[in-house]
Specification:
The chain has no helix or strand. The chain is low in regular secondary structure and 95 residues long. 0% of the residues are buried.
Length: 95
């Protein structure tokens, strides 16, 4: 009796988990400077092993906020207005 050979099962090894890569997005003004890089291509035929890497990604946003306060003087509430300066003192001596 003739039996067909069974295909070999694919063996999956345990996953290798790498440390989380922290990426920061920032915005900039871009200036283009052309650089010429000549190249030569050689074809090399190789045996390939597939190492499958997975990159789960999380994302966050940070708002940088600053505050400035200016005392521009004069007027109600400013220097010299109500609520500023020394308190009045009672007079000294007989009335």
């Amino acid at each position: 009796m003739f039996c067909r050979p069974r295909p070999r099962p694919c063996h999956v090894l345990p996953a290798v988990v790498h440390p989380t890569k922290n990426c920061v997005n920032q915005t900039f003004t871009t200036y283009e400077v052309p650089h010429i890089h000549p190249q030569h291509t050689t074809t090399v035929n190789n045996i390939q092993y597939q190492h499958k890497h997975y990159f789960p990604k999380t994302q966050s946003a940070v708002d940088s906020v600053t505050n400035q306060q200016f005392n521009c003087g004069g007027g109600p509430g400013g220097p010299g207005g109500p609520g500023f300066g020394p308190r009045p003192r009672p007079p000294f001596g007989p009335y």
